[in-house]
Amino acid sequence: MAPVATASAVTSEPPRSTGSIPGHGPVSRPNMVSVGTIVWLASELMFFAGLFAMYFTIRSVSPELWQEKTSVLNVPYATANTIVLVVSSVWCQLGVHAAEHGKAHRGDGRLLSPKGWGMREWYVLTYLFGAIFVSGQVLEYSELVHENITLSSNAYGSVFYLTTGFHALHVTGGLLAFLLIIGRTFTTRHYSHAQAAGAVVTSYYWHFVDVVWIALFATIYLLQ
Fold it and tell me: Which residue, 11, 51, 173, 186, is most buried by CB atoms nearer than 10 A?
């Protein structure tokens, strides 16, 4: 009897690589730290939305109180303080750019040459501007206390200090985060993608508090 030849089944379908979508290339998993930070900032946005709702509700109930107390606000001073915070976001983004290119610090470059700065130098500058902003708010609070506008004086004082005060606490939290990120550049021998991701998500938070303050500034100081 003639031997019968057997052959394995051959399919014409090309093999698919694991973890890829046909026609769309390989799947890249998103950075979970970035995703978690964005979700958390979304919850913070809801928190500040509640503060804005409280502000406009109380203002609609007591418009005469707003007409009396808003004249005390030093708008030029608050404008200058706002510019300081906005500019700090520019320095922060320059630090992110350096971090994404793996440049943790200036190395042997000159300190007075910003072109050679790394993430550390830009973030130190961001920290200084943020600290100036918070100090400016503290100084403004002291001036308002002399004008008898305190947290317990009336509805306007309560709403003013709650909205701006909670924002100041968030800015202070951002300053602490900057200290942590800056400190890691001194303890890490090799600046990896993981360290850069920490710098990036910190910038997300800083830009968030910056945008929230712009909205608060327009609401409290401009829409009097």
Answer: 51
Residues 6+ apart with CB under 8 A from 103: 118, 119, 191
- What span, in angstroms and rounded, lies between the C-alpha atoms of 187 and 193? 15
Q: Are 182 and 123 in contact (CB under 8 A)?
A: yes
The model carries a pTM of 0.83
Cα(36)–Cα(32) distance, integer angstroms: 6
Per residue in 31-70, pLDDT (tens digit) is: 788 889 999 999 999 999 999 999 999 999 999 999 989 9
What is the C-alpha to C-alpha distance for residues 171 and 149, in angstroms, rounded to an integer?
23
Q: Between 155-187 and 119-146, two packed helices, what is the crossing angle to 10 degrees?
A: 160
In whole angstroms, what is the distance from residue 121 CA to residue 94 CA?
10
Quick one: tokens of 198? 């920490």
E strand spans, the chain: 20-21, 25-26
Start-to-end CA distance of the chain, whole Å, equals: 104
